[in-house]
Design a protein that fits this description.
2 copies of one chain form a homodimer. By secondary structure, chain A is an alpha/beta fold. Helix content of chain A is 55%, strand content 14%. The longest helix of chain A is centred in the C-terminal third of the chain and has 30 residues, at 251-280.
């Protein structure tokens, strides 16, 4: 285990992949592993990338990673795929290929499935980010679809959150509907060479006019054609400007403090949930459940009885 | 409060709306209210409707409700919108209009936002379903976007789960990717008058060939054009056939037992989470948090210290 930690701190990709698998599978000992990494974290900039399915997030993230790799910098990517563990393998094929290609190139891409995580994605993601942080990646991109309660919370916890929309199709309205206006620090109009890009920009601007700027930051809108690499450099510059803004206003420390508070609360809650799960295996739980199903007791009263013990 | 329960059991729509608001807002006393309703529940068929954003779920659900209303039957709908509480109002306008229209017509439609629920959507949804069940709706439709960990779990907990896809666009593959193949009891190809419907049916069939039938049920595929009302009657018949299958095999009781177990576990966990939240307000939590942020202790060890007390 110490060897694994040493390899990981050296940035070894195989050690990285293995550690994240241990976290995903909740292999006994994973917790000590992540504990050991904690003191080596806190250096990475965490950038969340979100948007509706089909917005071109994967391509955008790949191009962002490539752009930095070309400059000799390293980037880690956690891609949260709305796939089941059962079917994930085949679908993720293209990302896995990219990962193989990137093995020695300073880019590490790891997909995590949204389902099948004991304790949930909300807990597994910050752990995976911590692993990449400890391995020395100065930038960690977290890519997740911007639909779903947990998924929006996760991406909103980044230092900088990028919301990706497409021209036309009412995408700006969808983003608003999904609560993404409130977490966006930067907007990307991807596929900006298609008709409707100007209207989408106008829609976003109109919605931003209705939203109070947070600490003097109005989210910029960047036109991108990810498939051709257009606008990627400007996007990185904009992310850099946001980062500088966060530092100058003290907002970075506030966000990270909030994130640490959220995570500690989640860990405490998860410990307690495990306790609840254990109690749910007991005869007492089953007896109360029978009474709930027979409608002789409601589940809230049953929970009270269970916890009073 | 007793008056509210009486009105609700009589099927009064205003009492229904008020009760669900009390649940959403966690108004003190909501829990007693839901407890009192428990003995009146267990009669409704719960049907989950899911699919990617833009698949036409809202229109489908409205047409399904209309079809039953035309036959003098009553239907309750819980529509889970990926909207924030902040922006929800305006966006939900069309659904609210439909609800007003339906006030005296045996259809009750209620939208719930995915964000801002204390304790989360996973707990609020079964409570809202229970309210409609107690109010005497024989069918309760739960509509949610099929992306997101919590959202897929919620819809998968229905008696019958309907997955909506569109022709072309790789929708069948997306459904597979989102883990919807595993929870689907019925597939709807909506907008089936568009090109590519036959290919989508073929894709779904091919994927179903790879999936083991659950208790002898292979999910049927129904062609629908929701905007024109085409295929709605066949869809209801198919849902009825699945229901009959669930009853004849004893699967209905098994699913409901599993649902009750899940809910009781969640309630116990939520109680414990509230305990964790309270502890997170204490000085001791803050002191440990400071040490986590200073990297002198990792969050798991901090949680242990907090819980050992």
């Amino acid at each position: 285990m110490t060897e694994l930690v040493d390899d990981l701190l050296d940035g070894d990709h195989r050690a990285l992949a293995r550690t994240i698998s241990l976290i995903e599978d909740r292999t006994p000992g994973y917790r000590d592993l992540v504990s050991q990494l904690h003191e080596h974290t806190g250096h990475a900039d965490v950038i969340g990338i979100t948007g509706s399915p089909g917005a071109g997030k994967s391509t955008l993230v790949d191009k962002m990673a490539e752009a930095y790799r070309d400059r000799g910098l390293t980037v880690g990517v956690i891609a949260i795929d709305p796939s089941s563990p059962f079917t994930g393998g085949a679908i993720l094929g293209d990302r896995i290929r990219m990962q193989e290609h990137a093995l020695d190139d300073g880019v590490f891409i790891r997909s995590m499935a949204t389902r099948g995580h004991l304790g949930g994605l909300a807990l597994a993601t910050p752990q995976a980010v911590r692993v990449l942080d400890a391995a020395g990646f100065p930038w960690v991109l977290v890519e997740t679809v911007g639909v779903g309660q947990v998924e929006v919370e996760i991406v909103g916890a980044a230092d900088t959150t990028v919301v990706v929309v497409n021209p036309g199709w009412g995408d700006a309205v969808q983003a608003n509907k999904a609560g993404l206006m409130e977490i966006a620090d930067v907007f990307v109009i991807n596929k900006a060479d298609r008709p409707g890009a100007a209207e989408t920009r106008r829609d976003l601007d109109a919605m931003l006019d209705l939203t109070a700027a947070v600490e003097g930051w109005r989210p910029p809108i960047v036109d991108v054609v990810a498939t051709e690499g257009t606008g990627i450099a400007e996007l990185w510059d904009t992310i850099g400007a946001h980062r500088a803004h966060l530092e100058s206003t003290g907002e970075l420390g506030r966000r990270r403090g909030q994130r640490a508070r959220e995570e500690l609360t989640r860990i405490v809650a998860e410990r307690l949930l495990m306790k609840a799960r254990r109690s749910s295996e007991g005869d007492r739980f089953d007896a109360l459940l029978d009474r709930v199903e027979a409608r002789s007791i409601d589940p809230w009263t049953a929970a009270d009885e269970l916890l009073d013990r």
